[in-house]
Amino acid sequence: RCVIGVLALQGAFIEHVHHLEQCIENDAGKCYGPGLEIVTVKESAQLWRCDALVIPGGESTSMSLIAQRNGLFDDLYKFVRDSSKAIWGTCAGLIFLAEELSTQGKLVKTLQLFKGRVRRNAFGRQAQSFTQECDFSSFIPNCSDFPTTFIRAPVIEKILDPEKVEVLYKLDGVGTGHASMDGLIVAARQGQNVLVTSFHPELAADIRFHDWFIKEFVLKL
Ligand code: GLN
Prior knowledge:
Elements: E1 2-7, H1 13-27, E2 36-41, H2 44-47, E3 52-55, H3 60-69, H4 73-80, E4 86-90, H5 92-97, E5 98-101, E6 114-119, E7 130-134, E8 146-150, E9 155-159, E10 165-170, H6 173-176, E11 185-190, E12 194-197, H7 208-218
Parallel strand pairs: 1-2, 1-3, 3-4, 4-12, 5-6
Antiparallel strand pairs: 6-9, 7-8, 10-11, 11-12
């Protein structure tokens, strides 16, 4: 049995649960095999049952403070360092995983796993949120038109360990209509087991990103 946990302290966790469940339903045992289970994680006992953990979007300061106050922070710190676990952080989840934050976001206590420097709210305020069709076909087969949502999203400003981190996707300034966004890193993987994205694939009516996470990360553990 393989258990995928979704951290459920705060933020858009239920959307991840629904997408992952939809993946299992659609797959109907064809590729994934039997016994994949999705659970929400609010406490340590639930966390340690998991083989993979998705850290959702939301608000990274709150997420970190709640984890510190309810005693989960230290377990999360250990869990994400176990290379036999698959980890995926989206948006606030990416911020929470970052080794370094740019000056503006320094007050968040992070898990310091992802070897990158992350800039919070890189696209401006809530009103500057946007959806962008992205061509992910260089890493997800046949996925050239994925609708990604950026909500007060962070970007990966700098890769701190280029030997360990592979950039998966950079925004294309022409595609977004904003030349200033050209080349901003919004998706990366670190080794076999860690995935980070600035955007929210769980807010699209499209499960291809989650299906790829299950196949490429969770089932390859
Ligand atoms: N701006 C938020 C933060 O700094 C992240 C936003 C999101 O997850 N949609 O935590």
